[in-house]
Design a protein that fits this description.
This protein is 42% helix and 20% strand. It has 158 residues and is α/β, with parallel strands linked by helices.
Length: 158
């Protein structure tokens, strides 16, 4: 388990694209974790694209033991998701957090190589987020190399 000098407030932080998974996979996962007595954090607020990552959300990431990253078709279309992912991977690199990726209806190699929908999403950030883009891509690649779950249809491949 990740070493930490503080007592985590949340067992698990869920990073996800609301557009893709808020009302299906992520909400079911959240409820299943809660039923098992696992303190999960799922942001319920509608975050507007282009806004700075809120201090409260950054704090929730920092106060979690584990982050579950739910990569989905539109995950990289959200600058919020990319900022979360960057923070999560920063904490992982300093051994302050465990990370579990879930590839939900996306190919792990597309995440790793920034191809498919991810290539298009990153291309859209070239101008507005040029200073952050390489860090986001690096975090994407790093997270995709962690053993996780690949979910396609109703099948899971661990």
């Amino acid at each position: 388990m990740a070493s930490s000098s503080h007592q985590p407030k949340h067992d698990v932080f869920l990073s996800f694209s609301g557009e893709d998974t808020r009302n299906n996979f992520t909400s079911y996962l959240y409820q299943a974790l809660r039923r098992k007595g696992i303190g999960a954090y799922m942001d319920e607020n509608e975050l507007k694209k282009g806004q700075k990552l809120s201090p409260a959300l950054l704090k929730a990431i920092e106060e979690s033991n584990i982050s579950v990253i739910i990569f989905s078709l539109n995950y990289a279309c959200s600058s919020w998701c990319l900022q979360e992912l960057y923070k999560i991977m920063e904490l992982k690199r300093t051994n302050k957090q465990e990370v579990v990726p879930i590839f939900y209806h996306v190919c792990p190699s597309d995440v790793r190589k920034h191809t498919g929908s991810f290539e298009k999403a990153f291309a859209n950030y070239q101008e507005k987020w040029a200073d952050k883009l390489q860090g986001w891509k690096d975090a994407f690649t790093e997270a995709s190399c962690i053993k996780g779950w690949h979910i396609v249809g109703d099948k899971s491949d661990r």
